[in-house]
Amino acid sequence: MSVKQCTHHKERKQKIIRRLCAGILIFLFIILLTILLIWAILQPKKPRFILQDATIFNFNVSAPNILSTSIQVTIFARNPNDKVGVYYDKMKTYANYHNQQITYYTQIPSVYQGHKDVNIWSPFVFSNNVPIAPYNGQDLKDDQQNGGVWLDFKVDGRVKWRVGTITTGHYHLHVTCSAYVPFGNRPGDGGIIVGNNAVKYQIARSCDVSV
């Protein structure tokens, strides 16, 4: 085979590869453009979260910056979209006090939430002899003695949006449910005794949601 033939064959092969790459890029561009158009038309809304209630089983500050607690919370989650579904994945909840995490992570099962659907979770957030920063320990103990404490119940995870047969990539989900939690079923607190030393409080507070 002559050098001219080899060169011609090589150029033809490169031309086919360039056309193939161009075709792939055009195909990917069309898919991306379709997704963006669907997204712009539907304008998906963030899920709505509400902290409905909290049941206090144990809340004890000791020694002097050590916390043991067990709280069951009821979290309401609603998909407000008419045509967009939501996948929840790797969800975990925990409690914060003055920006410090004071309980362990509790996993929430992964779930798909259809259009306008509602899910209700009732996880326990708890800790056992967890060290608290000294600048928070005394404040937490004072709050306990004064009859209540402001806590941030957090939910962190990932979400994916589903439109028809198209599913997006993962987005980080951050939910903060701030609530004043009273202790001891004092008059006016609205607590209901539900077991030995357990008191349930209706809260019904909207949560801040970031996606």
Automatic annotation (TrEMBL):
User: May I have one GO cellular component term?
Assistant: plasma membrane
Q: What's the chief localization of this chain?
A: membrane
Residues annotated as transmembrane: 20-42
Intracellular or extracellular location(s): Membrane
Where does the record place the Late embryogenesis abundant protein LEA-2 subgroup domain? 77-177
Q: Does the keyword Hydrolase apply?
A: no
Q: What are the alphabetically sorted keywords of the record?
A: Membrane, Transmembrane, Transmembrane helix
Enumerate the Gene Ontology biological process terms: defense response to other organism
Q: Which InterPro entries match?
A: LEA_2, NDR1-like
**What membrane topology is given?**
Single-pass membrane protein
| Listed name of the protein | Late embryogenesis abundant protein LEA-2 subgroup domain-containing protein
